[in-house]
Amino acid sequence: MSKSVIHIVLGTKGGVGKTTLACHLADYLAGQHVPHLLVDADDENHSFHRFFPESVLVNPRNVRSVDSVVAMAESGDHRIVLVDLRAGSGEEMLQWFEDVPFDELRDAVRFVGWGCVTTDPDSVVVLLRWASSLGDRLQYVVVKNEKDGKEMAALEQTKEGAEFLKKRRPEEVRIPLLAPSSAVAELNKNNLSLGSALALKEKIPGLTDTMMRSRFRRYQRGIFDQFDRLAEVIFP
């Protein structure tokens, strides 16, 4: 049984909801009372850091900086480390993984890769590129973001996708579309995750009224229920 888990929101295609997923995971972990560390390794946008200023900034181009993430997990001080990567194939990160002594770390640290896909087939292509490079060194969770629609058959209908599903047997999470779109815009404008918005005491039009809070709680509960189902994946 590993002492710590490093969750990596893989650098899949831009606009697929990577930071949205990272925010939901961070909100979920905040309520679980497990020592955890948030890491923003998107050196282009630092979007995750805007929502969670306490997150540690890491430059993926600096190998020693990324090494520190493993050291933090290996120390046992942080049972869970959540890392949000920048969009793209992430050559620096893929090369860094080549140096990770997975067998040596097996009893101390486990790695989980979260890959976001949408209705855009290119999102699946990039995820499969990561999976092809990383193989069984990670445990995978496929996150289907429904922001553009619910039908995402590209993963199942391609030869490579079907092979990935059969070989890696990834868990699956669905992130439904949050309505109304104006609420999403207000959350982004105020740099608020859903959990942060629900914790607010001050009044923000369109975010903190009674009906919107109720809508946010129901939406969040639907996502957290899926995370609860993945407890053996998420927690050490």
Report on the structure:
47% of the residues lie in helices and 17% in strands. The protein has helices spanning 18-30, 47-51, 63-75, 91-99, 102-105, 121-134, 154-157, 159-168, 181-189, 194-199, 210-229, 231-234, and strands at residues 4-9, 36-41, 56-57, 80-85, 109-117, 139-145, 171-175. Strand 2 (36-41), helix 2 (47-51) and strand 3 form a beta-alpha-beta unit. The mean pLDDT is 91. A 7-stranded parallel β-sheet has the order 3-2-4-1-5-6-7, with helices on both faces. It is globular. The protein has 236 residues and is of the alpha/beta class.
Number of helices: 12
Name the poorly predicted regions.
Answer: none
Mean pLDDT: 91
Strand content: 15-25%
Shape: globular
| Main sheet specs | 7 strands, parallel
Report the order of strands and helices: EHEHEHEHHEHEHHEHHHH
Helix content: 40-55%
Oligomer: single chain
- Rg from alpha-carbon coordinates: 17 Å
- Read across the widest sheet, the strand sequence of neighbours is 3-2-4-1-5-6-7
| E-strand count | 7
